[in-house]
Amino acid sequence: MSLYLMNDNVNSFDYVIHVLSSMLPMCNSLRAEQIARLVHDSGECHIHTGYPPSIYILYAQLQKTGLSIKLKLDKK
């Protein structure tokens, strides 16, 4: 399963960078900034892959921050 960050016109770049760098495993502020710019330019960006139940927990935590997060099943 994969998490995607979706573009919105609500959250600032600084806020998105702060949330991603503090909540995503192995994501520092530089990587979070790259993700924010990709989302701004293309509309969405893959941000994490994981397995239940941990991916559901991260999904819920990110949604609580106000970010637009989508959970997708990986195609095999």
Topology summary:
Layout: E1 2-6, H1 13-23, H2 29-42, E2 44-49, H3 54-64, E3 68-72
Antiparallel strand pairs: 1-2, 1-3
List keywords for this structure.
single chain; 76 residues; alpha+beta; 3-stranded antiparallel β-sheet; 3 helices; 3 strands; globular
Protein described:
The protein is of the alpha+beta class and 76 residues long. Helices cover 47% and strands 21% of the residues. The protein is built from 3 helices and 3 strands. It has a 3-stranded antiparallel sheet. The model has no long low-confidence stretch (mean pLDDT 96).
In short:
The chain is an alpha+beta fold.
Class computed from helices, strands and strand pairing: alpha+beta
Number of β-strand runs: 3
Helix proportion range:
40-55%
**How far apart, in Å, are the first and last alpha carbons?**
11 Å
What's the shape? Answer: globular
What is the helix/strand order? EHHEHE
The number of helical segments is 3
Backbone CA Rg = 12 Å
Largest sheet, in brief, is: 3 strands, antiparallel
Q: What are the low-pLDDT stretches, counting only 5+ consecutive residues below 50?
A: none
Strand order of the largest sheet: 2-1-3
What is the average per-residue confidence, as pLDDT, rounded to a whole number? 96
Strand content: 15-25%
